[in-house]
Design a protein that fits this description.
Helix content: 40-55%
Catalytic activity: ATP + H2O = ADP + phosphate + H(+); GTP + H2O = GDP + phosphate + H(+); UTP + H2O = UDP + phosphate + H(+)
Distance between the termini: 69 Å
Subcellular location: Mitochondrion outer membrane
Number of helices: 28
GO cellular component, one term: mitochondrial outer membrane
Protein name: Mitochondrial Rho GTPase
Structural class: alpha/beta
Shape: elongated
Organism: Sparus aurata
Length: about 700
Amino acid sequence: MRKDVRILLVGEPKVGKTSLIMSLVSEEFPDEVPLRAEEITIPADVTPERVPTHIVDYSEAEQSDEQLYQEISKANVICIVYSVNNKKSIEKVTSHWIPLITDRTDKDSRVPLILVGNKSDLVEHSSMETILPIMNQYQDIETCVECSAKNLKNISELFYYAQKAVLHPTGPLYCPEEKELKPSCIKALTRIFKVSDLDNDGILNDNELNFFQRTCFNTPLAPQALEDVKNVVRRNMNDGVKDNGLTLKGFLFLHTLFIQRGRHETTWTVLRRFGYDDDLELTQEYLFPVIKIPPDCTTELNHNAYLFLQSVFDKHDKDRDCALSPDEVKDLFKVFPYMPWGPDVNNTVCTNDQGWITYQGYLSQWTLTTYLDVQRSLEYLGYLGYSIIYEQESQAAAITVTRNKRIDLQKKQTQRSVFRCNVLGARGSGKSGFLQAFLGKNLQQQRRIREDHKSLYAISTTYVYGQEKYLLLHEVMPDFDFLSEADLACDVVCLVYDINNPRTFEYCAKVYKQYFIDSKTPCVVIAAKSDLHEVRQHYSLSPQDFCRKHKLHPPQPFTCNTTDALSKDIYTRLTTMAMYPQGFNPGFFLLSPCVLFAARCLCIVVQTHIFVSFRSHARLRCMCTCNRCTYCLCQNLLKLELLRNIKAQLRRVVFNRHMAQADLKNSTFWLRASVGATVCAVLGFAMYRALLKQR
């Protein structure tokens, strides 16, 4: 909406232009009328629309043609004043003033015109019969007002309509010749309807109508008022109301009716609430709200944003298969002016057996967009109506800006949920296979991917110590001579080489020594295509010796040439390294099967505790504070200060490296650790059985 309105009054001499302005200001007819009134500014708190209004007079006696042209170019609305008792002044409207104004304004930005018939107190008849053909002939004429400066008839209404013609113009909304909404208006209102249709059933039920009414006008409709609205639509349209809800056709009909009855402000209020400007385009302020992102910080979606996106997914997943078919994706993005996701998205996130984007893949793609290009994510959320549905000031409320990575390193903990892993390697070393395997696609499935549908990104979830995190893999194109800051800025680095190609490890070694040897970014060497025969690499050191020399983890074998389910262990380890770059221990990659078995036992015991305790608690139907049921006893046990201290001490030992490196490399140490973990699991289960037996 405009910040101010500039009204220009033109017309033949002696028609009463100056008298109209002075009567408005003084609220009485002036005894003496000057040749021209000075420019008057009406404060915003006085005007009905709360917008400052400038009223400019024109006098042929005091102003030149050049000054008139300048005023026409500056005006937002022009009132052509004529005298109802002077036929010559009426004829001049079409023979002189309208052609003059048309010639002096751009075709793409026409100024609305208002015809003002002054001196209505001098005649008993109306001039509307003469004026109506003129209004029908010229589309720029918004309305005609007959008034009298002498007895103050319709003076306030005149300037109100002038304001309204600027703030709520008819031109962008309605075509009077065809008596229907313009295509751009229909497109905007259709998007508003789809955003407001929260269950995507094609109708606005009473709850959705009330939410829409409250969103746009800050007040709900009474039940009887809702019925009255629907009855009006029923009387005029056969398919405007369905299942006691308003259809899209009925919604558009209501706005057509508002405009035809002169209530343009109703439609404009709705359009502006949903982010549209005077040209029926979504404003830049709506789509791209200001958000400050300090250096070394990343952007993530917060909990409310994920809840909103989940509701959008559920709204369009009509067959409830937890995946979006191509038709469902198209339906979801109908509120967008373009299709934001290309075919590469299906090779960036997880899909089902049919190649459709799963629920997890859907959220992953949104997470990826927010991480890489937060402005685009804000734009997409704007199209979906996040700030309106969740009643937020802007889409920026959906974004969390993480704290500086240096602070995370100092505190040795992070609140981030998305971690980036850049995958580097020579051509043909298996980088793309490593990315696609993260999405669960084996070599056979990868070969079916079209070249133009391939993606340099892959994102999915991993679980680190029971916490769900997103790992973003980015395949960096092999160009040793130039790696950009984006290629180097990440949380963990994967250096991939082909064990069957003797020339691939050299690239990894050179990249590491050139860019990462002095970096705090953890690095992992991946020995890809481990199902093939390993050959000697053409480098001074073998991959194992190179890793040992630079204190890196040994090369991790990897292959996607299998028919079995692909393991995600390597990706979990990468995420863990990204979360704890200083505290991560190389011994993690060397854990014996006994330790892994003990860890699984602990997980099973914990899950059994929770599952059985909850069932027992539900069966006893007692309060959570009873301290008698199995559930409460387990909760009290878990809350013991002793257990918390043990947990804290263990965490410090593992992540602050209080253990000697010699111990970490000693197989006896890991055997003791595995035995200890197994004993803990058995004792925990025995304690649970004892508690259950007491009940």
